[in-house]
Design brief:
By secondary structure, the chain is α+β, with helices and mostly antiparallel strands. It contains 13 helices and 14 strands. Helix 1 runs antiparallel to helix 2, helix 1 runs antiparallel to helix 10 and helix 3 runs antiparallel to helix 6.
């Protein structure tokens, strides 16, 4: 899970950086909208490795990183408080509590629109549902309705351009984008990148709505002056598309910005290349670990995992392999005598006939025969069921860390 969150977070940052550098200042609003939404979807799905791409540089020898085995000489070590599990439980509770609070807030905000539709007068203006509210709010839209202050509407203080602006939000389904990002913020509330994406998406919505208004009325300068008149209003509504959202110099200048077709094409090609490159990098064929389980056996603790690919299989499963190592490992006398603790990192190859070869010590932090004893145990291993690719046996490399704890 941590690996997934790190990868998805990195992708979100890369895609957003590309947007800020190449796209934000370009008058290609529809492409930018698609890019921002696609960036979120890709960032959350690519790390799942739902499919893989064969790398042309692959040596065709897959390496699988196993979870470590703990071998102890003192049973009391197994009964020690696991602070890591306590921390994990605490963080899980914090995550659930904050997510629950955000869900309640989200549901309340959405339900508030429904209540206002029920409590206030609703009219159809030029084929569009308009809710006349008693609250002194700026014109805003949500789902299929525009919300306008009743007194301002009756007194003719709501220009046609503002109605057209909000209608553009509805016709282009901008509410769906906002709801999508809000849900992502609930699930990944700890990732601040979603706040940046939400701001960028909302600002791009304003660009799109401004563009629709200017195409309809053709009076850019008058419309800019109109927006400036409303810029001082602060009564905005959460989740809604608000007329005064980010009234900035950038937004006003964007209305008169010249479009360069060649420049746009180059930037579309560049961003597409970034997507393809990241898709290749994060989807290159690899074997990934799934859920990690734990099991205690006599005087040692073993952990094991499983994968969904056709990897080598120890007779009886990977749990039996961990049990085999733990039961056959004999604690070196010096390790027990000196009460040494540390890790031994091993590597071995499962051949096409299931035998183990190339057994080597990558690192031995204990010495005193701890690594050599682990090598001895692996040489005793019975043959595995070999891995297969396309129905043919293939060689697979394994990395195995073993934690050895001497007596107290």
């Amino acid at each position: 899970m941590i690996t997934y969150l790190l990868k998805s977070g990195l992708l979100l940052m890369v895609f957003f950086a590309v947007y800020k550098i190449l796209l934000e200042n370009e008058k290609m609003f529809r492409f930018n909208r698609a890019y921002l939404l696609a960036s979120i979807v890709f960032s959350l799905t690519i790390p799942l490795q739902l499919f893989s791409i064969d790398s042309p540089f692959s040596t065709k020898i897959t390496t699988i990183q196993l979870d470590g085995i703990m071998i102890v000489a003192d049973r009391s070590v197994l009964n020690k408080i696991n602070y890591s599990e306590i921390l994990t439980y605490f963080l899980s509770v914090v995550y659930v509590v904050i997510a629950a609070i955000l869900i309640v807030r989200f549901v309340r905000n959405v339900f508030s629109f429904y209540l206002r539709m029920k409590k206030n007068k609703v009219e159809i203006v030029k084929g569009q549902k308009v809710v006349l509210t008693k609250e002194p709010v700026l014109p805003h839209s949500f789902w299929n309705a525009i919300f306008i202050n009743q007194e301002d509407f009756k007194n003719g203080k709501i220009p046609s351009e503002l109605i057209a602006h909000e209608k553009a939000h509805l016709e282009q389904k901008h509410t769906l984008d906002i709801l999508f990002v809000e849900v992502m913020q609930i699930v990944f509330w700890f990732n601040p990148m979603f706040l940046l994406y939400e701001k960028a998406i909302k600002l791009n919505h304003e660009f799109l709505a401004d563009e629709a208004v200017n195409k309809q009325f053709g009076e850019v300068q008058n419309y800019q002056n109109l927006l400036l008149d409303f810029a001082s209003h602060k009564n905005t509504v959460s989740l809604a598309s608000n007329i005064n959202y980010l009234i900035t110099k950038k937004r006003l200048l964007m209305m008169t910005k010249e479009v360069s077709p060649i420049k746009m094409i180059l930037k579309v090609v560049s961003t597409t290349a970034v997507f393809v490159m990241l898709l290749f990098v994060f989807s290159t064929e690899a074997i990934s670990q799934s859920s990690i389980n734990s099991k205690k056996q006599k005087d040692y603790k073993v952990s094991y995992d499983s994968t969904s690919v056709k990897e080598p299989q120890f007779p009886g499963g990977i749990e039996k392999f961990y049990m085999f190592v733990g039961q056959n490992y004999k604690m070196p006398a010096e390790v027990s005598k000196q009460k040494l603790n540390g890790k031994v990192y091993l590597q071995f190859m499962v051949e096409t006939d299931g035998s183990l070869t190339d057994i080597k010590i990558l690192r031995d932090k204990l010495g005193n025969g701890a690594g050599e004893e682990a090598v001895r145990v692996l040489k005793l291993s019975p043959k595995w069921i070999p891995a297969s690719e396309g129905g043919k046996p293939v060689r697979v490399m394994y990395n195995l860390p073993i934690t050895v704890q001497g007596a107290k």
